[in-house]
Specification:
Blueprint: E1 2-8, H1 21-30, E2 34-39, E3 44-49, H2 54-66, E4 72-75, H3 77-85, H4 91-94, E5 98-102, H5 108-115, E6 122-126, E7 130-135, H6 146-153, E8 157-161, H7 162-173
Antiparallel strand pairs: 1-3, 1-4, 2-3, 5-7, 5-8, 6-7
Helix pairs in contact: 3-7
Amino acid sequence: MKTWIIFLRGINVGGHKKIKMADLRELLVSLGFEAVQTYIQSGNVVLKTSEPDPGTIIEKGIKDTLGWEVPVFAKAPSEIEAVLAQCPFSEEKKLKSYFSLLHAVPTSENMEAASAISYPDEEFHITDSCIYFYCATGYGKAKLSNNWFEKKLGVSATARNYRTLTKMLELARV
């Protein structure tokens, strides 16, 4: 059995695709996953499975059960540790940063085009698997957003803050 950290994109946001975490846990158990734990209401899950690709199984299970298309990001704890370790920002900024995990590798052309944009008080760095984003005035006031990056890069992404990623790692280690 391998431990996976799962992030569902776009559930329980703005009244769309609402699901109680108890119902999500029940759905995941019915799909054969074990030791399912959720964290807050935005689709953060830790689970165990011998399946090599739990994201695809979860996407299909949600589609079949709830009728929603939901991008699912399945990451090994070591992948999340690497994302945090490779953050290009100072420790102070890192603690206030958002990390947009990418569902696929964007094209180099799209990465270059997005990287050419800049706004005051906003810093970002794009890699093949993550967008590191820091906004001095707070994420809610940022001009750039997860949706903006998705459109510019042409790939699905899901953003989480530093606290959520570290909490997911903590849950995965239990």
